[in-house]
Every structure is written in structure tokens, then in C-alpha cells.
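Example A, followed by Example B.
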Amino acid sequence: MLSITAPKDSYIELFMSLLKDQETPSEYDFWAAVWTIGAAVGRSCYIDRPRAPIFFNWYIVICAESGMTRKSTVINFANDILEGCLPECADIIQNKTTPEKLWSLMANRSGQYGRSHIVLNISEMVTFFGREGYSMGMPVLLTDLYDCPTKREGGGSVNYGTLPLINPFITLIAGSTPSWLARAINPDVIEGGFTSRVIFINSDYRKKLIFWPDELARPNIQAAKEYLNAIRDHAARLHTIQPDEKAKAFLTKWYGTRTFNADTYSRSFESREDSHVLRLAGTLALSQLKSSIGLSEVELALYAISRAKKSGRSIFKSAVSNLRLANGLDKIREVLLKRGLNGINNKELHLRVRYLLGTMDYNGVMDILIDTGAVRMYQVSNRRSEKSSRFTKYFMATTKILDKKIWHEVLSRSGQLNEDVHPQPDETKPVLPSSNSLALEDHTSTQKPSHSDLSSLPSIDLSISYTSDDLDR
């Protein structure tokens, strides 16, 4: 992946500068810096989004084959920065534990401080999650606590009762190999919601190659520690942070015009993509000691999160049964073409492909086909009564389903074409834009509008819903 730059004069820029003489990819440096901010801030500050507040707890997994890109180097460096910058109630865990032990520790801290703050800094994810059956409950626990609920009941025993968690906050950074993730994180875990909460960062190239390092003194990290402490205190004084009006308007437009993919990982990640963008934008604002989230932070957050999504998608590409998805797409097209203008109802079409596509994949594929105009959806009343509110969905192919360009777009959005990641072998010259560059504006201005905004053909206008009382139809 290409290098990435930080906002000018920010803590993240200072953090990354301390690693300039290391081989670690700048992508790793950026996300490790982001993680340390969240770990230091804890629950003292959050983004006050109505009905869905966002805290700065990050689940970040740095992914590369062993020894390739020095992922442990940046993870350990992040731990060094955090020493002396965490609240009194915080506990750092760097080795293997069980869900039961972790719950017990958090429950004890809840009793002592009225809150629990856990920082997981794991060099190798396999040693933390393990292969044993009792460790497989860890993704479930992390998934449940991700949104930082005010209280959770659980743990304990039948004889002594439960051990409640009060104001839990848990954040994670870990290293892993792509092969282990592909084996351990199966499609059921993806659909269970764990991976949608994790930022997976994958890079195959180091920012520089150093065979024989110079005899340089260890980087002086005291300035970074002082900056991080200032951010922690600043966040505590703010308590909440929100996007300003321009940033909010920009995000509203982006949210309403974004497109979705059909592969299992991307669809799961996109369900929380807006939260990731806000969380990163807020982190970038805090890294500059700002009191609100501006447009420049939002643009850089959109850019970085879109790259993270592509990175995760490339890791799990082999784990989401792409062959079955491709065969399912072909089967759907075959059935729709055979039915012609008569169309086919949703239930029958799903039955035709049920052995190739699960419900989630099927719905994602149909959304893409409709959005591209390759398929038109209409509704037929189930009863002759005009007062009946029950309808059956019908699908009918349009001529666009035979268009090579349209079908290429369908395949790309469903994860069948690997066009997402184009790694570059040389990262010595950062080429990604800063938060003030025009390149970011180019990136964010190309958000793809929905099909109904683009289409000039009334025959495939998706805003039209057809109702018929003719049951034979």
C-alpha cells in the first residue's frame, strides 16, 4: 500500500516522525498513532451522535507475514509511548488471557473506580486468541463491549451471582498473519459482527530498507508523551466533540450517495463504515488539540477508512467463498433471462440459488443488480382487496444485464475483480495526500451517486414501484 501522511503539526505527525528511520510501513505508523490517542483518552471524551455515541476505542489488527514488515516493532513502540499516559484505572494486557479472566479483571476495576479501562497490546494475535475452545469466546466478548455500554451483567457463578461491568472501555492493537486470519476468522465470525468493528491494515512493502542500521540514539519520545498527555487532558475538558456544520453536511451527502458491495466482509464492514469515519475524524481533530471536527479531518478520515476497507477485503478474499458467489451471480442472471418480461418473485429466485448464496450475499447481490439498472424490482399485491398492504417482490432483467460494462461493474462491486489494492514497491516518497491537499478533494468528490440519479432511461427508473391486482401476473 502507498504511504500515508498525517495532519501537519499534529501528534500523529510527531509519532510518525519518530519512526522515520524504521522499516515499518507508514500505514502502520499512522494507525498505531491513532490507536494510542484512543487508548489515552478512554471514556473521558466521545462523539455525541444522537442515539449512537462513538467512543475512541479502536480495534486495529496489523497484518503481514512474519518478519516481512516489522509489525511487532510498531506495536511495541506504541506501548512505549503509552507508558505514563494512561489513566490510573487502566490496565495493559500484552499476553494471553481468557474471556473469563478479562471479565473478572474489568469487574474488579468497575468496583474500584466505577469504570474499567483495558488496553490490549498484542504482538501476535494467535497467542491472544489461541486455538483452544475456551479462547473462541474472546471475539464475542470484544464484539459485545465495542460500543462501550454503561453496564453489562455477566461472569460470576451460580452460587455467587454475576460480576457487573460498569462503564467498560476496551481497545486493541494486535499483529497477525493473513494466513492465520483466513483460517481463524471464518464467514460466520465475519457475519457475527467482529470484523466489522476491526480495522485491518495490510502492507507488503516497508517504507525503507535498512540492512545495517546506523549507530543512532534511541528516539527521544518524551515530546510525544507530553503531546499525548495534553491530548488526554484536552479531551477530558471537552467531554464531547462534534463535526462542524460543513463537515456534517459533507458527511450527510457522502452517506446518502455511497455504494455497497456484496462480498461478506465488505458488506459487514460497510454497516459500520460511517462510525469508523467519524471515530477517525474525531481522533484526527484531537491529535491537533481542536475542539470540533472540520472538513479536512473528515476528508482524510474517508480516505484512510476506504483504504482500510480495501485492505481488509484483500485479506479475507479467500475466506468468503468467492467461487460460490460468482456461480450465484451467473445463476441469477441465467434465471432472470429465461423468465424475460414475466419476471420472477423474490422467494422463487432465492430458492433457485440457495445452495450458492446465503441470505446476506443474496440480498447484497440483488441490491447491486438493482442499483446498476441490470434488474428492475416491482411489487404485486397478494390480495385482490385494495386495502391489502401485503406485496410480493418481483424481479425482471433489463437489457443492461447483457451490457459488458454494467456486468463488469456488478462483478467488481461483488468482489469478483481484484482491482482494489495496487501495492507499490517504493514508499520512500510519501504519495498520499495530506489533509489539506487537492488530491483528497478529488477522492471525496467521486462518491458514486445512486443509479436513479444517473439513469436517463425511464424503463429502469428504480424510484417507480409497480402494483398490480392481477394475481396471474
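Example B, a separate protein, is given below in the same form.
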Amino acid sequence: MAVTLSVELTDLEYAALAHIAVDPHDWFQDMVKLRCKNTIAEVANNKIKEMLADPAVTTIPADKEVIFSTLVESGDIRPLAVMTAEETERTRAMLTTAQDLTPDTPALS
């Protein structure tokens, strides 16, 4: 599966990008791909450290993309928007609401 991303720039924004890049389209693609490559490497390096510290691990894949792909397939790597929504819901569930309060609820000092 492949995903195509695009960005809409104003004429002024495009002029600014063209001022620093010979080919603004290529520059944009290269920057996004570099960010993805760096994220894959960072996550894989952290997982490799975990695996090296785990005596039960007997083999470690040599390819960082394989490690990252395995983490995606297992659900360990998820979109930030999903993780943020889940964390917001966990926080909301822990907060006391007015209907939870009783006359015996201790006040904060």
C-alpha cells in the first residue's frame, strides 16, 4: 500500500520554498521521506536496545524496516492521533466529576 500526501501552498509560500530549493516538489518529497526514515531508525534502534537487554531474545532482525514493520503489525506503533485520543480518554476517566462528589468527598487543600 502506498499513500500520496500533498500540500497546498499560497503563491507567497511557494516563492519562499522556490527561493531555497531548486525543485520545491523534490525538496518536499525528500524532507518527508527523510523524516520517515529517521523515525523508522529511531524506533528500531530503541527496540534493538530492548532486545539486546532481554536474555530470552535469541535473534534480532538485521533490517530496521523489518523491525519497524513488525511493531506496526503488532499494534505497538500506532498513529499519534489515536494514542492522544486514548490518553485523553484515560485522563477523562480518572477525573472526578461533579456527580461523583458527595458531602463526604474530601476537599483539596
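On Example B: Residues 11-94 form one domain.
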